[in-house]
Design brief:
alpha+beta, Ribosomal Protein L25, Chain P, RNA Polymerase Alpha Subunit, Chain A, domain 2, 4 helices, 14 strands, 16% helix, elongated
Length: 202
């Protein structure tokens, strides 16, 4: 639980679209905290606080200790952020309460390392990514911010499967088969050769 980040928030009056619009007019970002068999709590946050966090990698896998001052703290995961279609600024944030005693489902992004050390890619092979994120079940204090796949030594035709990945202790894939392909290196498409063959046939 030491990995949590404390962020400040305040209780806000009312719920629904009208109350949310009033919060935004006041220069705040409305949000809600729900889950853990407790009543939802409507909150508001400084937009600078929200923007500082969503700009970081792993926002949806980061534990947050939402501090409401005298109204207590809530250990949460961010579940959704709504952005303004024109300004691209956050206009609503959903947080879900978590407990150290209960496993949770979380989607973890997949990233790749050492592409330049892959013989297959050096030969012109193409990295095909089948799973850009993997949903796992784990305890809140074991959530990985990302799953990194090392492409060193991979040749054309080789694949990385879910069973090949090293997940944190106690973490298990959720609704994904162990044999599922995460990524593979495919042979390059030689368009020039195809064009030449077509012209020769014509």
């Amino acid at each position: 639980m030491s990995d949590s980040i404390t962020i400040a928030a305040e209780l806000r009056d009312g719920s629904g679209k009208g109350a949310a619009r009033a919060t935004r007019r006041a220069g705040k970002v409305p949000g809600v905290i729900y889950g853990a068999k407790q009543a939802p709590v409507c909150i508001q946050m400084d937009p600078r606080v929200v923007w500082a966090q969503i700009s970081k990698t792993g926002f949806f896998t980061q534990l947050f200790n939402v501090d409401l001052g005298k109204d207590g703290k809530h250990l949460c995961l961010a579940r959704d952020v709504q952005m303004h279609k024109v300004t691209d600024q956050p206009i609503h944030v959903d947080f879900m309460r978590v407990s150290a005693d209960h496993a949770i489902h979380v989607k973890v992004p997949v990233h790749f390392a050492n592409e330049l050390k892959s013989p297959g890619i050096k030969k012109g092979g193409v990295l095909n990514v089948e799973l850009h994120e993997i949903e796992i079940t784990c305890s809140p204090d074991a959530i990985p911010h990302e799953i990194v796949i090392d492409l060193s030594g991979m040749e054309i035709g080789q694949s990385v499967h879910l069973a090949d990945l090293k997940l944190p202790a106690g973490a298990k894939p959720y609704h994904v088969a162990a044999g599922a392909t995460v990524a593979s290196i495919a042979a390059p498409t030689v368009r020039g050769a195809e064009t030449t063959e077509t012209e020769a046939a014509g």
